[in-house]
Amino acid sequence: GPQGPRHLRPLLDTVLDALHTGTHARGGPLPTGGPDTVTAAVHDAAGDLLPDRGDPDALRTLVHAFAAGAADPAHPLCAAHLHCPPLAVAAAADLAASALNPSLDSWDQAPAASALETLLTRTLARETGHTDGLVTTGGTEANQLALLLARETHGTVRLVHGANAHHSLPRAAWLLGLPDPVVVPAPAGTLDPVALDDALTRLPGPRGSVLVAATAGTTDTGLIDPLPDIAARCTAHGARLHIDAAYGGALLFSDHHRAKLTGLDAAHTITLDLHKLGWQPVPAGLLTVRDAHDLAALHHRTDYLNADDDTEAGLPDLLGRSLRTTRRPDVLKLAVTLKTLGRTGLGALVDQVCAHAREFADLVHDDPRFHLHDRPAISTVLFRPAHAPDPAVAAVRRHLLTTGRAVLGRARADGRLWLKATLLNPATRPDDLRALLTLVHRTHAEGPR
Question: Which residues of the chain are in CATH 3.90.1150.10 domains?
Fold first, then answer.
């Protein structure tokens, strides 16, 4: 309301102060002590969460504890997951979305938000070579929707995916009651087109009864499947193609890296996720579609949200834009980011993190104390202490976590366990990369604890 900003401003000062003091108290990328210590600190700060009398200091107390116990993706040594540091401008836009609190299930709850969502989804769809798109909570929901649209368009479909595919794809097939997926080998970390061709040759059914899912940016290694070759095999066999580009999709913004996604536009549906390589607060996913008519499968009528006479009178029908009813306006932070940075600004951020990954890989490659798995395809680097057995690699990671000194991921490739650095922070410096490598070496050299 009219008085909202006046009431909110002092609370923002409280939040920003508590974020500062909590981050200072943490002192590193992760709180020290491990799960038991963090849980005890949260319980101590929270106390009775539903007291008889309210606590006027609750905002400051709990935000401080939240920050002190956070994994901070803005810290250069927090590099485990596809978990990016959000841009300040995106976080600020998200505050406005929360304050206004539109719900995108009917036009009378979200007039401007619904218009902006249409602009945003079509803008990003055009980047992929598609015509329209839906805002989702992330890659998992987008992948689930892709399978649902395929099923509703063609009847029961059989999912075919590489052994490197994200776990959300077979899980979506299970959730939708589809037949067990066919898993195609990915011996080099990417889907093998020859093995795919063999699988498609053996599968019965009419055209469109098979859905092939390819990946543009795997979670473990960041590798991109050979999209043009896969698309050609799908065309030859009449199979529908979905590409999970939750990680790699933002390469479209970069003039230097865009070519890695050649063949993306051949897909019927594409998953994007800009809270990965897009620097957005969670959630910020999308599903784009080549044929907007596929979205008709989501049409649903309920009188209090999209009555026929209201729709005929010109009120937009929003209920068919998602499987969810209540939807927050995540579109605002995305639109503000695109407008503020433009394609050049976003492309520069993509180029920076990819360059950081190449630099870190060079450091690993040139250091005889480490083994490098491979050169990075996007911004993920797998490495391990030389001659270390898998249990020692796992122990190094866990010790870094529980001491709060660094946050690294883990991945299994070529039959071995690797440490995973997912570099999504454009502000990372060369000294930070060297410090991370030194920290891993010292932790390994200290031996078991």
Answer: 344-446
pLDDT in tens, 158-183: 999 999 999 999 999 999 999 999 99
d(CA 229, CA 193): 7
pLDDT at 205: 83
Task: Kindly report the CATH number that applies to the domain delimited by 91-340.
Answer: 3.40.640.10
Class of domain 344-446: alpha beta
Delimiting residues of CATH 3.40.640.10 domain(s) in the chain: 91-340
Q: What is the pTM of this model?
A: 0.97
